[in-house]
Amino acid sequence: MRERVEHIRAQFRDEVRQVADMAALARVRDRYLGRKGGLITQLVKELGALPPEERPTIGRLINELKEEAEAALERLRVQLEEQAEAERFERERVDITLPGLRPLFGAPHPITLIRQRIEDIFVSMGYAVESGPEVETSYYNFDALNIPPGHPAREAQDTFYLSEDLALRTQTSTVQIRALERRRPPLRIIAPGKVFRRDTPDPTHNPMFFQVEGLALDREITMGDLKGTLQEFVRRMFGPQVRTRFRPSYFPFTEPSAEVDFSCFVCRGEGCRVCKGAGWIELGGCGMVHPRVLRGAGVDPEEFTGFAFGLGLDRMVALMYGLEDIRLLYENDLRFLEQFGF
Ligand code: FA5
Asked: Which atom of ligand 1 is nearest to the CA of 309?
């Protein structure tokens, strides 16, 4: 019996040395300590069959072997687990010094950025922000603005018609009329939005562009208030280096009317390709609201006077960022768009 115990011990030590993974460990544990048929378990069972005088010594021997086997298997288990964990760490190792992949964030479009700045400036001067539909009836786009049938501005060469009476609005001045239906003077509103014209694209023209309409109605408003407001707006928007100039002009819905020019954003007034040598770029139209427009909207022109303006937002974006061509704004080239942002 003693020899069998020693033989099993030697065999166990030999097998345990060769264990390389958890599966082999389980197999060895089962082979020696398995409840049914484990070699050491078997020895314990056979103990009862020994003559009583041999039992204590052999019993101690078997117990020592059992303890040795349990301890050795447990040590090996811990060791294998540590090893497996170390291997996993090595496999999943992250090099935190590697440059990361930059997630692609969207950024506001330059038109949006400038529109928000314009809104902030006018809101701080007491203006409310209004809007109106992009598809308009002839009434809002023309009639209510004192543009009679047969006027050249109504021509199909200039306007995208959707039906006889419906068109994509050609100017944000439509919102003047819509605002007057919702509010009574005194009022001050601006209305930024998209407008559409059948214009041939060039560095300062697009068939779709943005305008910002402004309308202020009150008692005793004068042309001086209009000039002062636009000059203050330009100063706050672009700084004192950008100059403004007012030229007499004509719009059916204002009297008197003017065109407002800003010094060219490319040559700063020297004269270049973009401003066609003039040194100035036309940014918008303005004037004192025509009494006929006021009367049409149910406002008494004897009581209220006011001014209106409509500025080209795309050209302001060009002025702000030094763009030489406003068509860049709608080409959706990420290399261009990514340069703007918060
Ligand atoms: C108007 O549209 C008038 N409604 C402005 C107005 C409002 C006058 C209120 C009086 C009172 P005009 O057609 O000039 O005016 O256009 C205004 C501005 O829009 C231009 O000065 C220019 O800056 C811009 N603009 C006009 N056409 C284009 C275009 N094709 N692409 C980009 N900007 C344009």
From this structure: 9
What single DSSP character describes residue 224?
Answer: H
Identify whether residues 192 and 278 lie together within a single domain.
yes
The residue whose CA is least distant from atom 9 of ligand 1 is: 309
Determine the residue of 174, 211, 282, 309 to mutate for testing ligand 1's pocket, defined as the one with the most ligand atoms within 8 A of the Cβ atom: 211
Please give the number of the atom of ligand 1 that sits closest to the Cα of 260.
21
Task: Give the domain range for residue 59.
Answer: 2-91
- Name the closest-CA residue to atom 15, ligand 1: 285
Q: Which tens digits make up the pLDDT trace of 255-289?
A: 999 999 988 767 878 888 777 888 998 889 999 99
Beta bridge pairs of residue 194: 210
What angle in degrees, to the nearest 10, is found between the helix axes of 313-321 and 110-124? 100
My answer on whether 29 and 114 are in the same domain is: no
pLDDT at res. 54 = 87
Ligand 1 pocket, residue 325 CB under 6 Å? no
Tens digits of per-residue pLDDT, 172-219?
A: 999 999 999 999 999 999 999 999 999 999 999 999 999 999 999 999
Global pTM value: 0.73
Cβ–ligand 1 contact at 115 (below 6 Å)? no
- pLDDT tens track for 224-248: 999 999 999 998 998 888 889 999 9
**Which residue's C-alpha comes closest to atom 10 of ligand 1?**
286
Same-domain check for residues 37 and 121? no
How many distinct structural domains can be found in the chain?
A: 2
The pLDDT, as a whole number, for residue 256 is: 97
Beta strands in the chain (DSSP E): 128-129, 135-137, 166-168, 187-196, 208-218, 244-251, 254-263, 280-289, 305-312
- Same domain? For 67 and 123 the reply is no
**59 and 123 together in one domain:** no
Q: 61 and 151 share a domain?
A: no
Does residue 176 have its Cβ closer than 6 Å to ligand 1? no
Q: What is the pLDDT of residue 242?
A: 83
Q: Can you tell me the distance from the alpha carbon of 169 to that of 324, in angstroms, rounded to the nearest whole number?
A: 26
Confidence bin at 342 (pLDDT 50/70/90):
low
- Which residues, 6 or more positions from 61, have their beta carbon under 8 angstroms from its beta carbon? 2, 5
